[in-house]
Amino acid sequence: MNTTRPAHRFGASLAAALTALVVAAGVLAAHDFWLVPNALVIAPRGQLEVLGQSGSRFPTSDGPTQPAQVAEARIVGASGDERIAELSVTGRSLMLRHQPAKAGQHIVAVALASRTARTTPALLQRYIALEGAPELAARYEQDGTYPKVDSVTRVSAKYAKTIVEVGSNGPRAFDKVLGHALEIVPLRDPSRVKVGDSIGVRLLFRGKPVPNVHLRAGSAPPAAVNGDSAALIVTGADGVAKLRISDPGLWNVRTLYAEPMAGMPEHWEVFFATIVFSVGGGVP
Question: Which residues constitute the domain of residue 95?
Answer without folding.
Answer: 12-277
